[in-house]
TrEMBL record:
Protein name, entry field: Ferritin-related protein
Taxonomic superkingdom: Bacteria
Gene3D superfamilies, sorted: 1.20.1260.10
Annotated source species: Acididesulfobacillus acetoxydans
Ranges for region Disordered: 43-62
InterPro entries: Ferritin-like
Length: 62
């Protein structure tokens, strides 16, 4: 049985998805600009984490 989400929950979900999308893009861009390999790797991993979280959040829309 699938539960329905409220309009407020839907709006919050959309905002969270948008925030993670933006974070992933920014972190990936910062990663490409970084010179230090450790920082580059950390930023890239953080971008991937944001993308993964976005995908998990999007599952609630199905």
């Amino acid at each position: 049985m699938q539960e329905q989400i409220t309009a407020m929950e839907l709006q919050n979900l959309r905002e969270a998805i948008a925030a993670h999308t933006l974070s992933a893009k920014k972190l990936q861009e910062y990663s490409t600009q970084a010179n230090d390999q450790q920082i580059k790797q950390m930023l890239s991993q953080s971008a991937q984490s944001a993308k993964s979280t976005k995908q998990r959040l999007m599952q609630f829309l199905q």
